What does this fold into?
Amino acid sequence: MANSELIASIPFDEGKEIEYYEDRVIFNRNEIFYEDITGYAYSMTSFSQSVYFIPAYNSKTVTLSFSVGDDTKPISLVVKAEMLSGFHNQRQADLEVIFSEIIKITDAILAQAVLNKLYHRIKQGESLSVAGLIVEEDSIRRKGLFKEKELEQYGRTYLRAGQVIVEDGQGRQFFSVSLGTINAPLLGYLLDALFKE
It folds into this structure.
C-alpha cells in the first residue's frame, strides 16, 4: 500500500505539481516509487536567437528525469517558457525558482538512496555507464573514438556551467557530461566514495 504522506510539492504549471511523498514522486500522471528509481537527472537550458543582432526569441527549459528498472528510457518532465523578444518574462524567472526547488528537494529525498544502490551495484562487480564514462570497482574509463582511455589516478569531480567535470590526479580534465544526463548529479559523490575510501 502506498504511503500518502505528502513531503513536498513544486507547482510547475497552472494546476500541475511535482508531488514528493514518503515513498514516491508523482507528476503528469506518472507515479514512480523511490525503491524503483535507479538514477535521476535535472537540467535547465537557455536558448536565444537574434536577427541581425536584434534579440528576437528566447526560452528556458527545465527537465527532471528518472530512470527505473533497466535504465533504457527515463521518465521525464519538461517545462518550457518562451518569449518572442529579447526580454525575459515572469514565467522564465519562475522556472529558475522551480529548478532550484527541484534540485533541493530531489537531492534531499533521493540522493543517498540512489547513491547507495549505485555504489553497491559497482561493488558487486557491475559497471556503470554515464554517457561514455565507465565506472567499475577498480577503474574509471571513458569511451574514445577508436579505443577506451583509463584514468590512472582519480582527482576530483566538480560542477561548472551545467557540466559535471571529472579530473585526474594532476588536475587535468578527463571527462565532462551534462548535468541533465542520468546519474550525472551523483557522479562526484559516487567517485569519491569508490576512489577516495
Observations:
- The mean pLDDT is 88.
